[in-house]
Amino acid sequence: MTEILTDLSPASLALANRASLYGYFRFCERAPVFDFNHLDGITRWSCPHPFFWFNSVICARDTKPGDDALLDEMLVYYRSRKTTSIGWWLEDGVSSQGWGELLKERGFQHQEGSPGMGVDLAKIPDSLPLPEGLEIKRLTEVEDLRAFAHLTNANFRFPPESEPAIFDWLVGVGLEMPLISYLAYLDGQPVGTTSVFYHAGVAGIYSVTVNPQARGKGIGAMLTLQPLLDARDLGYKAGILQASTLGFPVYQRLGFEKNCDMTHYYYKSNRD
Q1: What predicted TM-score, i.e. pTM, was given to this entire model?
Q2: Domain assignments of the chain as residue spans, ordered by start
Q3: What's the CA gap between 7 and 25, in Å, rounded?
Q4: Are residues 184 and 131 in contact, defined by beta-carbon separation less than 8 angstroms?
Q5: Strands 56-59 and 85-90, bridge-based pairing
Q6: What is the pLDDT of residues 16-59, one digit of tens each?
């Protein structure tokens, strides 16, 4: 377990938010479905799934001579893997000026991305009103990951043929710390997903999805709250997440506050 973060200032939580996300990306290297490469301060990975989080680059250094050729090689690599969407993320302290110019010349666009949010776990509610028949279950069996993969892929509206990649990813990263996954069951049927990633001293909430037919019942809020309550029981002080437009007001009601924007560069091929 990493040292638990006790500085809950907005600036500290913003740093933790980015560190959690980049740690989450790097954690995926343990899943064989990903192809990871480490190239002179740059980490890139790819997976047979269209979501750009699964096909991205983290850069931990400023530009230097030869990086224009490196970027061209990166695009050749992703095209060879039939990747249509790519993310490019800069570590804290890396100048965006040099990379921004090179990336924009090659069709990348700068995006503000999702708002990063944080919460003091001492201030979250202990419970929420729940719809009758709702159960939040921590996953302990590999077979449970099939339902998680199906719901995540479907609820994010990815093509059905991408679902096996999510299942292979989940099997690869496993069911134990630092990544714990949960399913929401309504009347015995799986309707929602969530995960908590323990990294950078905080509990990071990821993969919150709810079946469209089950929305508006408070399930998304409970899928967010339950892992945070579990994290608090482990001694963690803060929770972070990157909010979607749909989820932002839900997280605000749980006590989350915005602390940053998860900026990145984004490339989308015209081939699709």
Answers
A1: 0.95
A2: 13-113+263-268, 118-261
A3: 24
A4: no
A5: parallel
A6: 999 999 999 999 999 999 999 999 999 999 999 999 999 999 99
